[in-house]
Amino acid sequence: MHPHAQVYAHAHPHALPDLGRTMVLTGASRGIGHATVRRFSETGWRIITCSRQPFNRQRCPWEEGPDDHVQVDLSDRRELQLAIHDIKAKLNGKPLHALVNNAGISPKTSAGSRMSSLVTPVETWLQVIQVNFLAPMLLARGLFEELAAAHGSVVNVTSIVGSRVHPFAGTAYATSKAALACLTREMAHDFAPHGIRVNAIAPGEIKTEILSPETAERLAPTIPMRRIGTPEEVAEVIYFLCSDASSYVTGTEIEINGGQHL
Ligand SMILES: NC(=O)c1ccc[n+]([C@@H]2O[C@H](COP(=O)([O-])OP(=O)(O)OC[C@H]3O[C@@H](n4cnc5c(N)ncnc54)[C@H](OP(=O)(O)O)[C@@H]3O)[C@@H](O)[C@H]2O)c1
């Protein structure tokens, strides 16, 4: 535990109920991942973050940030293996309470439109499948012992587009998210006897950089709640799935979309 956190915990014994818990989260540098790190750090979690960018002290106020950041391109399988070693070294034999597989990519055509099954290059398919689908599996498998030691929780970030065609999201992206939803079910089955829960969250339209600029304007009127969601609303559900409040929940996919799937 960071020495500042120890002092703080002594002064405010009820303010940081999750002190001593550790999470690994991919795609922490912005969007849903960034909001999730903020949400968890508020209650005392230690967070090991992963993304391609170096740690940015100005945007990320959490304490052990630079020391607990792993710079990795998840599209590179060799880099990913090195990152798993690095994460294990940072854990140093301690249990891992949560793994949030949040990083994802959604390539568009050069004109910014949906990349359909007719035009998606094979290289794009391979990159999307590696980042959105294989990396979550390899991370969960690579950190299995640490997760089992904590009776931890894995949360995979899927998408509403895994179950329907979307005007902006492409074929490779949609396929990778459908596969990740299936993988969640399979891993929940395989990991449950070891005390590890595995769930998914499927956001609809959330205000982040991954969205096409016209999404809010075009799609919000079609959503029953008549608005797009915020990263903080997604972070809250991830928190629920990593907390004891969901201790008997595994193998499920929670829709976070204001009723868009109805
Ligand atoms: N926003 C939505 O409406 C929405 C809807 C459904 C599902 N989702 C899913 O939610 C997750 C987060 O999305 P978001 O909207 O927050 O996206 P975002 O704002 O584009 O952020 C994506 C994050 O993933 C990281 N990342 C991307 N490629 C990476 C790579 N190759 N290696 C390591 N890290 C990588 C990025 O960090 P670096 O650039 O530093 O690497 C960034 O932190 C994604 O899985 C996305 O598919 C989002």
Task: Supply Rg.
Answer: 18 Å
- Quickly count the domains: 1
CATH architecture: 3-Layer(aba) Sandwich
> Going by CATH, what is the homologous superfamily?
NAD(P)-binding Rossmann-like Domain
Total strand segments: 7
Number of helices: 8
Euclidean distance between termini CA atoms = 44 Å
Strand order of the largest sheet: 3-2-1-4-5-6-7
Which overall shape is indicated by the principal axes computed on the Cα atoms? globular
Give the proportion of residues in helices.
Answer: 25-40%
Structural class of the helices, strands and pairings? alpha/beta
What is the string of SSEs from the N terminus onward? HEHEEHEHHEHEHHE
